Amino acid sequence: MGGSVSCCISPGESPKIHRRDVELEECPFTAEDVSEDTGTYLQHISDRELPDELAQEANPSDHAKASTLFLNKSQTDVREKRKSTYTNHMSPALLTKKYSSCSTIFLDDSTVSQPNLKNNIKCVALAIYYHIKNRDSNRSLEIFDEKKHPLSREKVADDYSVVDPEHRLIYRFIRTLFGSAQLTAECAIVTLVYLERLLTYAEIDICPCNWKRIVLGAILLASKVWDDQAVWNVDYCQILKDIAVDDMNDMERQFLELLQFNINVPASVYAKYYFDLRSLADDNNLGFPLEPLSNKRAQKLEAISRLCEDGYKYLNKSTLKRSLSADNLVGTKNSKAVLS
After folding, report:
1. pTM
2. How distant, in Å, are the alpha carbons of 17, 246, 305 from that of 330?
3. Residue 237: CB partners within 8 Å, gap ≥ 6?
4. Within 13 Å of residue 277, how many CA atoms lie on the same side as its CB?
């Protein structure tokens, strides 16, 4: 993480559009040097502004111990599915699911430091779907209203504010943005963190009338914070051809203000969202593709484990005073090279 957050209004294209089509494999592993001295210490913003216990429970995007909103929203549907499965005695998904045995171990290719792009976008889209479907009310803000700020020249349907979008529609919308802007799977997780932080801080709901603009704003911000070569706002206007760059800038500015400029994503929060997304996928039979563990892949995993262990030993110094951010989590360049 390291890109500065700003409203980009340059008429040119960002350098990211001209990068190779292959998704970037490198995610820098950085940590600030920590000294043993007791000199003047500038407190980190997340340490200065810790809310009380009640606020911690209500802010899963800030605190690792708080339950994610999307997982709570999905529980009603999950219980119904389990009840239906129990009634029918057997779920079709269980018949095709692969299980490890003494002779064969099945693993997928998604890890917390290198998530699978397609499956993570599906999970994020499903999390947003449950947010919309099981919302408590229809609280919104004008800047996110698609009727007042349309993303296309097509006429907005009269029932745009009452018809819930299907999971497939949400997935296609996010997939289009990620594919065109060449964003990474980690960016999808950070997008969901910012989305839930917005809902909590601004006390609004994501609903049929605002979900596209809220998701767009979260993706726009997450791409700038996560990627040093972020896509500029003008480039999103080329993907969504009917939206004006001034509108994008205004939405980004208000999104940041509603977040109270808190764009920090601790490593523990990032990891919590990653594993909760996996739990959501498992509950909804969106299984990650499994492959048998070969000797070659086992050796790679062992090498990655050693590299990560060495890195975490460095980070776990007793004098570490600043909160860890998500860029400490994603592993070293060497571990990425081992996978490639």
Report:
1. 0.71
2. 23, 34, 12
3. 243, 244, 245, 248
4. 33
